[in-house]
Write a structure and sequence with these properties.
The chain is of the alpha+beta class. The protein is 32% helix and 27% strand. The chain is built from 2 helices and 8 strands. A 4-stranded antiparallel β-sheet has the order 1-2-3-4, with helices on one face. A hairpin with a 6-residue loop joins strand 3 and strand 4. The longest helix is centred in the middle third of the chain and has 43 residues.
Length: 154
């Protein structure tokens, strides 16, 4: 007679890190909601309505939820503490990156705005300059073409 042996249980495979694609839709500078985001998990499951919220301890990720009699309940949420931490860090990193790009874009735009405003200031004579030049020449005084102020157009 042969004894039947039960195979030793194989340990559960460790979960592979899931690809998390975060898209920041809007950033707010006032109020407790800092940004709104959408997340795609593993390229096959999308979560919308995620918010980056401000608190005394710093920003945190708020999952979409609903209000019940006992308080607010998340509709979807990470199941393990490890994935919860990974999810929070990924969304917050995307938020910070979006903030950095927004600040870089504004810093890049500012010098161009200054140049154009100073150019306009130089190109358009001020009231003091116009008084020194006298009245603009009329069309009958210009021989080379129509005049624009004291400049003759050719």
């Amino acid at each position: 007679m042969t004894k039947k042996t039960t195979p030793a249980p194989t340990p559960a495979p460790e979960p592979h890190p899931m690809d998390i694609d975060v898209k920041i839709h809007s950033i707010s500078t006032s109020g407790s909601t800092l940004a709104k985001a959408s997340v795609t998990l593993g390229g096959c499951f999308a979560v919308r309505g995620i918010k980056v919220m401000n608190s005394e301890k710093g920003p945190f990720v708020s999952m979409p939820g609903y209000k019940s009699q006992s308080g607010f309940k998340d509709i979807c949420f990470p199941c393990t503490p490890e994935f919860h931490k990974h999810f929070q860090q990924t969304v917050l990193n995307a938020y910070r990156q979006e903030l950095t790009q927004l600040h870089e874009h504004r810093n890049y735009e500012r010098p161009r705005q200054r140049e154009s405003s100073s150019f306009e200031e130089r190109a358009a004579p001020g009231p003091a300059e116009m008084q020194e030049e006298g009245p603009p020449a009329g069309p009958e005084e210009a021989e080379d073409g129509p005049s624009l102020g004291s400049m003759t157009m050719q």
